[in-house]
């Protein structure tokens, strides 16, 4: 019989998390006198960004968040954005602020991300939150890596004592992913484009996280039999179909567990954005989780 791995169904788990989040909002909002608030800011007309932002707002509405929209024109200046962020930082109905990336080239991204109050930084991109993660202190953590930890935990895949290999060193995924795994007592190897013999390094992994952003690069020869394979890639092919960084058809023949694309990490990123916003809401209201 052909080998069949456990499929880590991020879409199904995200739906479960959204149900749990909706119940929390129902229990907490009457006590706080308001629902959680997440402001999502989109600058420009990029069609992929529009779709992602629409998905985030829909998820917010579904669970009962206050989710005001800021759709700004492409010509929006750094100053315009900074004053909007100042307003939202001071707004007691807002717990989280998300500025959709990428921003237009004329906007100074670092200055924008630095201006978001760290306790409203539900993306976890502010240096204060990155520093807390490095120090192993509590803080808001980037949605994709935190969502991957949730996916592993809910699937009952152990992390402590395992060898995790993260391919990719971005500030948004690779680096925070590595630190989260390290904070959970994994032995962590971070690989990147200059790693010699990447397949050999990847084959060390009990948990392999592919976050390199190269469509379908990770094949059978990168995977230790039985390993858990997490595919963070989301490239859109010429045919409009979403492609991961992993060759799913090859990987499924050796992996013990694997995330599909679509339906794996992507929906978990959105569910975790809502979890981060709920955490910020609990912090702002002084309530504890029901
Ligand atoms: N400030 C900021 N924070 C982000 O978290 C952020 C961002 N900017 N810019 C863009 C990336 C990308 N991202 C995704 C979220 C969900 C899916 C997702 O749900 N994907 C579905 C499929 C959606 C489709 O079919 O296009 C899936 O994989 O099943 C994908 C990508 C968040 N990002």
TrEMBL record:
Residues 142-283 form the Tetrahydrofolate dehydrogenase/cyclohydrolase NAD(P)-binding domain. Keywords: Amino-acid biosynthesis, Histidine biosynthesis, Hydrolase, Methionine biosynthesis, Multifunctional enzyme, NADP, One-carbon metabolism, Oxidoreductase, Purine biosynthesis. GO terms for molecular function: methenyltetrahydrofolate cyclohydrolase activity; methylenetetrahydrofolate dehydrogenase (NADP+) activity. GO terms for biological process: L-histidine biosynthetic process; methionine biosynthetic process; purine nucleotide biosynthetic process; tetrahydrofolate interconversion. Its EC number is 1.5.1.5, 3.5.4.9. One of its GO terms (cellular component) is cytosol. NADP(+) binds at residues 168-170, 234. It catalyses: (6R)-5,10-methylene-5,6,7,8-tetrahydrofolate + NADP(+) = (6R)-5,10-methenyltetrahydrofolate + NADPH; (6R)-5,10-methenyltetrahydrofolate + H2O = (6R)-10-formyltetrahydrofolate + H(+). Residues 8-123 form the Tetrahydrofolate dehydrogenase/cyclohydrolase catalytic domain. It comes from the Bacteria. Homodimer. Belongs to the tetrahydrofolate dehydrogenase/cyclohydrolase family. This is Bifunctional protein FolD. It comes from Leptospirillum ferrodiazotrophum.
